[in-house]
Fold this protein.
Amino acid sequence: MEFCSLGSGSAGNALLVRSRTTCVMVDCGFGRRDLERRLALRGMDPRDLDGILVTHEHSDHVGGVAALARHYGIAVYSTAGTAKAARLQELEPTVLVSERTQCIGDIAVLPVTVPHDAREPCQFVLSHGARRLGVLTDLGSVSNLVREHYRCCDALVLECNHDEEMLAGGPYPYPLKRRVGGDFGHLSNAQAAGLLGSVEKSALQHLVAAHLSEQNNAPGKVQALLGEVLGREEGLRIADQASGFGWLAIA
């Protein structure tokens, strides 16, 4: 199994996960033309996709889903609440039930309930054989359920949205600062590091910091903090808005 990102941040998100026979996209926050261009940079075509998994209804994650799915006839998967909030019903999505595995080809998808300010948000643990990829962005706090399901992964895409001091002193209006930093907002660097400290780090082949705020974070801060907790720089990467990150294989 391998994975890559087409872009990660508040202006749009899309992640690809593929085995030899199956390829799924987690979220699509880019317009169709932009998405086609980003896919081509990774050697992919929309017709290669077996499904689009949607985490929640915010536009940077779902904004391009309907157009892409309709144009190419791609199956969509989401919780019932997300489908309703994002107005995806006309696509007849397959309804995901949190904490219940859904197989797409030979990739097993486990939706995990997360605390975020959306209708019925989830994140995903994707498995192929014994290998597990945890995708964990867009949550404001780390619940016991999250700790349980993400404790042992071979690769982890982990939200590091903001540095708490930069958010407090940054340009956002106070209500937005409260939302982002609240229990149903986004993970801070410190919260991400706390979760990382509780997982089986010896099993992690890849750790990717994702969904960094361009206004309230700095890649250097993330690299230093996560590297300290991980105990090594090897296998640690940061996803950016412009290009995400390239294909990473889980051996």
Notes: The mean pLDDT is 97.
